[in-house]
Amino acid sequence: MTCLKNIFAATALCAGFAGTAFASDADFTLVNKTGYQIDDVYVSPTKVDEWGKDIMGKDALADGEKVDIVFPHGDGKCKFDIKVKYNDGDTAEWANVDLCEYTAITLHWDGKNTTATGE
Length: 119
What we know:
Immunoglobulin-like, alpha+beta
């Protein structure tokens, strides 16, 4: 049992270092100021027509809440498109967001227009 505990401890330690080693300038804190609950978040390099899987890392993000987004992006890319899916099934997109310039991105949506502000 002690050996098994040591394996889990070593794995957890390595996983912690791996997360730190692969974090880069494009990882960010997402702040929801859309007025709606966000259920899914997708991030894709600008001009790529594929979204991939939800990367939020938690079940839902209420209006006014924030979450740290860490995702695989490689190649030193900085410009990304962000898509969210709300709890009612509607979606909204923000194009050409420079994730290297800011550590936090606040998303705004009025039902027709999307804007993003950075800090």
